[in-house]
Amino acid sequence: MASRRGAPPLPLRLRRLLRSPISRCACFIVALTVLLVVLSLRQIARVDLPRSDLPHQVPNEQLWVSNGYGYHACVTPTHRYIGPIESDRYMTVRSNGGLNQMRTGICDMIAVARLVNATLVIPQLDKRSFWQDTSTFKDIFNEPGFIKALEGDVHIVSDLPESLQSAPRARKHFTSWSGASYYEDVKELWKDHKVVHVPKSDSRLANNGLPIDIQRLRCRCLYQALRFSDPIEDLGKKLVERLKSRGKFIALHLRYEKDMLAFTGCTYGLSESEADELRIMREKTSHWKLKDINSTEQRSGGNCPLTPHEVGMFLRAMGYTKSTWIYIAAGEIYGGDKYISKLRSYFPNLVSKEVLATKEELEKFKNHASQVAALDYIISVESDVFIPSHSGNMARAVEGHRRFLGHRKTLTPDRRGLVELFGLLEKGELTEGPKLSSLVTKMHKYRQGAPRKRYASLPGSKGRTRLRTEESFYENPFPECICLTGKH
C-alpha cells in the first residue's frame, strides 16, 4: 500500500532498525559528525585568510577620495594691491635648514622684501647643516622662472650690482613670528646702509594677523613661483607616471631615519646597542640642545615617529589592502630591512625612488640631499594619499600644498592615540581585526585633510611662545589663500 505522501513504504526490517535506541543514537552521532566537519571546513577557510585581511571592508571611495566642499585656491591680489616701487634698498639672505625649511623661508623673505620695499638678491642656500648639500639656488629651483613669476610683486636680482659688491652691509637677525608693524621699524636699517644681510630666513613672519595681500603673496611664491629646476621636475613627473601606471598609491613620509630618532630620543623597539648609538649621536650634535630624553615619555606623549611595524598596523586597520602600492618618501631607514620588513609583511608593494628610477637617472642627484628630497616632495604632492609618520617641515609643507590644490587626501596619524591602542595589543587586551579597525577609523575621521581654518595657539601659552605654537601658515593657508567657489 502506498503511503499518504505517495512515497513507497520503507522495508519492515529498516523500520524496526530505526526504532531501536542504539540505531537512533548512531544516527545522531553521524549527523553531529557531519555538522562538525562542515563547521571545521568553514573555520579553516576563515583562518586561511591573511590576518590583515580580516578587518571590515572599507569602500574604495572612502579610502582614496577627499572632499574639498567647493573650496579652491585664491591668490589674486586685492584691488588695493600695487606693483613694487623703485628703491635703492637691497637685501641679501642666507636660507637655513633642509629643503622645505629653506623653501618656506625664501617665501617669507619675499614677503619681507615687499613689506620693506627692498630688492631681494637670490638667496644663498644652506651648505653647513646636517645635509651638507653644496647645491646652489639654480641647482634646485628654476631661477629665471622665479624672478619672472614675482616681477609684479618684488624686485629680484641674481646678484648685487657691481657698485655694491664691496659696500658695507648691516647684518640683522629678524625676530621670529613678526608682524607687519615690526618690519615698518626695520626699514630704518637702510638709512645708513644700502644692503642689509639676513643670516636666517626661517619663520621670520607671523602665521596670522598679516595683510591678506602679504599672505597671498606667500602662497603665490611657494605654490606657483618657486618651482624646482627642470632636471628635478622632469624626473619627478616620470616617477609619478610610473607609480600611477600601477594604480592608486600612498606616499608615506616615513621619518624613521637615524638623525630623526636621535633628535627625538625615540628608541622604542630598538636594541640596546642601537639606542646607545642614537644617544651618542645626540650628545655629539652641538646644536641639538636637549640631550637627556626619556624615550618612554616621548612615545606616550605622541612625540615619536611611528615605527614601520606600527605604520603597517595603522594602514591595515584603516582598511588599505595588502595589494596597495606605497611609495617611501624618506632617506635611509634606520636598521634597514630589519625594520622595513615588518611594514613589507603588511604591504609587499613597497617602492622607493631607487626602485622606480634607473641608476643613470639618479646619478646626477647623487650626494645632493636637497635635490633628492625635492623628488620625494613632488611625488608626495601628486600621490593619491599622503601620510606622514611624524610632523616636520616636509610633512607640513606637503599638507599645505595638497590643501591648496583642492584638499587632496592627507591622512595624519594620531600618534598619541595609536600608541595607546598598540599598548593594548602588546598586553593581549586587543587583537588586530574588526575591533581595532573600528577604533582606528573613528579616531581618524577628522584627520584626513578636509577644509578647516588654521589652529590657533595652544591654550595657556603666552608671549612669543604663543606665536610659536600656532599652526604654520604653510601647513594650512586657509582662509587667506583658499576660498569657497564664487567668494574671494
Structure description:
There is one protein chain. 44% of the residues lie in helices and 8% in strands. It has 488 residues and is of the alpha/beta class. Strands 2, 3, 4, 5, 6 and 7 form a six-stranded parallel beta sheet that branches. Strands 10-9-8-11 form a four-stranded parallel beta sheet. α14 links the parallel β9 (325-328) and β10 (350-351). Residues 1-14 and 32-54 have low confidence and may be disordered.
Q: Structural class, from helix and strand content?
A: alpha/beta
Tell me, briefly, the overall form.
Answer: globular
Helix content: 40-55%
User: Uncertain segments of ≥5 residues (pLDDT<50)?
Assistant: 1-14, 32-54
**What is the residue-mean pLDDT, rounded to a whole number?**
89
Major beta-sheet overview: 6 strands, parallel
- Count of helical stretches: 21
Say how many strands there are. 12
Query: Measured on Cα atoms, how large is the radius of gyration?
Result: 30 Å
Terminal CA distance: 94 Å
Topology, please?
Elements lengths: L11 H8 L1 H27 L12 H5 L6 E3 L16 E6 L3 H18 L2 E3 L2 E2 L11 H4 L2 H7 L6 E2 L11 E3 L8 H7 L8 E4 L13 H14 L4 H15 L4 E5 L4 H7 L7 H13 L10 H6 L7 H11 L6 E4 L8 H8 L5 E2 L1 H4 L2 H5 L5 H14 L2 E4 L4 H12 L10 H13 L6 H10 L19 H6 L13 E3 L4
